[in-house]
Amino acid sequence: MITVEHLSKRYGAHPAVSDVSFSCEPGTVTGFLGPNGAGKSTTMRMITGLTPPTAGHATVDGVPFNKLGNPGRRVGVLLDASAQHSGRTGREVLSLAAMTMGLESKRVDESLERVGLNKVAAKRRVRAYSLGMRQRLGLAYAMLGDPKILILDEPANGLDPEGIFWMRGLLRDFADAGGTVLLSSHLLREVEAVADKLVVIGGGKIVAQGDKSELLAASGVVVRALDPAALEMVLRRAGLSSTPSSDGGAVVQSDAETIGRAAADAGLVLLELRPAGGGGLEQMFLTLTAGDSVKEAVK
């Protein structure tokens, strides 16, 4: 179980993360989505104790991460695949971790085999690994202690299509066996294929969260007008809740007739008026994060 409650992080005057709250339950994969600079990596670093929050707190397996005893045997973390010592071999990286966690040496071979790194690859220096191989080694490291929780930031970076398909199955099997997965990724279709829950962050704030099926279901009406500014004013005057879409329109939580009548009364020319939905995770993501131009200040 991962619980995040009102986490905030400021760097000077810049609010990188603002009042973020969500939870990840056993038996589920939670997709953590947002554009670059939205606050995903900062949030995950706060969860794992690497970045102190300005406000709020997070617990992993019921306690703050830095209070866990032998954390590698309870939580597997992969935040940066390039963080491994480049002068060591893949086997040496895992062997040292196994010694630190008090694990039997056979766990090293089991973990290497689990992620598809053969004996030849295990003997190579990490500096000679491709990005995809480093991702596999990072996963082997994260899963070495047989944890029940995984926290993964962009674990599919550098993997080919076959590798991405393999990772999807690995994470799905882990969750189906009762594990908890928090997965950040920019590969929206892969997240859509494996996730049970979604948390979408934009500009450091949660803009949507819930069960994937509910969030992706058709909701509201898409409307575009010849004059976008006038449309915004008409919707506000009518008391209609709306979210800007990436094409200059809006997704309105109302019915088409109500929106159409409000536009007609104001003499507003509409270019589009249709039910929302049908675009999958990609369309939902673009709609929810439209206008989020915050540049990534901290990885």
3D architecture notes:
- The protein is α/β, with parallel strands linked by helices.
- The protein folds into 2 domains: 2-213, Rossmann fold, CATH 3.40.50.300; 218-276, Alpha-Beta Plaits (2-Layer Sandwich), CATH 3.30.70.
- The chain contains 11 helices and 13 strands.
- The chain has a 6-stranded mixed beta sheet, with helices on both faces. Strands 11-12-10-13 form a 4-stranded antiparallel beta sheet. Strands 2-1-4 form a 3-stranded antiparallel beta sheet, covered by helices on one side.
User: How large, in whole angstroms, is the Cα Rg?
Assistant: 22 Å
**Individual helix count:** 11
Report the helical percentage: 25-40%
**Termini distance?**
24 Å
Overall 3D geometry? elongated
What's the number of extended β-strand segments? 13
What is the string of helix and strand elements? EEEHEEHHHHEHEHEEHEHEEHEH
Count structural domains.
2
Main attributes of the structure:
single chain; 299 residues; alpha/beta; Rossmann fold; Alpha-Beta Plaits; 2 domains; four-stranded antiparallel sheet; 13 strands
Task: Give the SSE map.
Layout: E1 2-11, E2 14-24, E3 28-33, H1 40-47, E4 55-60, E5 75-78, H2 90-101, H3 106-114, H4 119-122, H5 131-143, E6 149-153, H6 161-176, E7 180-184, H7 188-194, E8 197-202, E9 205-211, H8 212-216, E10 221-225, H9 228-237, E11 242-244, E12 250-252, H10 256-265, E13 270-275, H11 280-288
Parallel strand pairs: 3-7, 3-8, 5-6, 6-7
Antiparallel strand pairs: 1-2, 1-4, 8-9, 10-12, 10-13, 11-12
Helix pairs in contact: 2-3, 3-5, 6-7
